[in-house]
Design goal:
six-stranded mixed β-sheet, two-stranded antiparallel sheet, Glutaredoxin, single chain, 13 helices, alpha+beta
Length: 319
């Protein structure tokens, strides 16, 4: 009599296990544990006391990237912390709603099965944290490329403008004749890259000597001229510890502001649902004659060149 083997192949057994994992309570329990451990990790990164060594460097770098942390002032943007902590909540609610019956059964009859699932979730979050630590150390060890001052140098015209700063004072391009100017474009309610750009500017200003700072200015054009009121721009300036006559967050008639941004080729578009503005992240460095000498992005390398580029221009004399 011929018999057929009913045993599954290794691939079949793997598929059967994965199907059982995804259709039962194990998957949502694992996912929920992972999200809870992620929230715990973010809480630790936000509120752990300052430290030294590898852990301290990692903690500071993480806070600067994710929470707009200012290492000099010791403050950070708590709204970013709450956003990162709240992001998993909708997914957690969905997981519990869809798998609530098997989850309740697991809790009532097989509670011990949660231990290995929680352990796997903790291991996953820990592995991700360690990978971030390793990435940060690798980036720190990379040799910084020298600033190619001559190769990047340009003499492009800066569009003229006459706008109003955060204090209600008129500001025009001609006001900065003979000084070096750092130009960028941000908006007050931005929660993504604008805080990083403003923090970078604050850091660069802190690295310059008082004499160097007195010989330069920063002009930030509003990317949201219809909504960036003087009050909002003033609050933003104060948050980052910058004020006139060093720092000018300018706005005006939307058509005039947008015309300058268009001439500078600052790409931007508004998400109609969220109201957020997607935009290019650029720094324009003007020499003492008001010409665009350097155009740098927010890439890791070009950020490191910003202070060098400023000092190249600050050492030059007016014609």
């Amino acid at each position: 009599m011929n018999t057929c083997s009913t045993s599954l192949t290794p691939t079949g057994r793997l598929v059967a296990r994965m199907t059982g994992f995804l259709s039962g309570a194990s998957f949502p329990a694992f996912a929920l544990c992972t999200l809870v451990f992620y929230q715990f990790f973010i809480t630790v990164m936000a509120f752990a006391p300052p430290a030294h060594g590898v852990w301290g460097d990692f903690l500071e770098d993480f806070r600067m990237r994710c929470f707009t942390y200012d290492p000099k002032g010791g403050w950070m943007q708590l709204s970013s912390v709450w956003v990162m902590l709240a992001e998993p909540l909708p997914l957690q609610a969905i997981l519990f709603f869809i798998w609530r019956t098997p989850l309740q059964e697991l809790w009532q009859t097989r509670r011990r099965a949660l231990a290995p699932l929680a352990g796997a979730a903790l291991a996953l979050v820990g592995a991700i944290a360690l990978s971030l630590l390793g990435l940060g150390r690798t980036q720190a060890k990379q040799t910084e490329l020298p600033f190619p001052a001559d190769r990047l140098r340009s003499e492009l015209p800066m569009p003229s403008f006459s706008l109003i700063n955060q204090d209600g004072q008129p500001v025009a391009l001609s006001d900065f004749k003979g000084r070096v100017v750092l130009v960028t474009a941000v908006y007050s309610t931005c929660t993504t890259t604008c805080p990083m750009m403003l923090t970078k500017i604050r850091t660069v200003l802190d690295q310059l000597s008082p004499a160097e700072r007195s010989d330069m200015a920063v002009v930030a054009f509003s990317l949201n001229p219809e909504a960036d009121t003087g009050e909002l721009r003033s609050i933003t300036s104060k948050i980052y510890g910058m004020k006139a006559p060093q720092f000018h967050f300018v706005n005006g008639v939307p058509a005039d502001v947008n015309a300058v941004l268009d001439k500078l080729n600052v790409a931007r578009s508004r998400d109609e649902k969220s109201g957020q503005i997607q935009h290019s992240n650029l720094f324009f460095l003007l020499d003492r004659e008001g010409r665009i000498a350097y155009r740098l992005s927010m890439s890791q390398t070009e950020q490191s060149w910003l202070i060098s580029a400023l000092r190249v221009l600050l050492t030059e004399k007016s014609l």
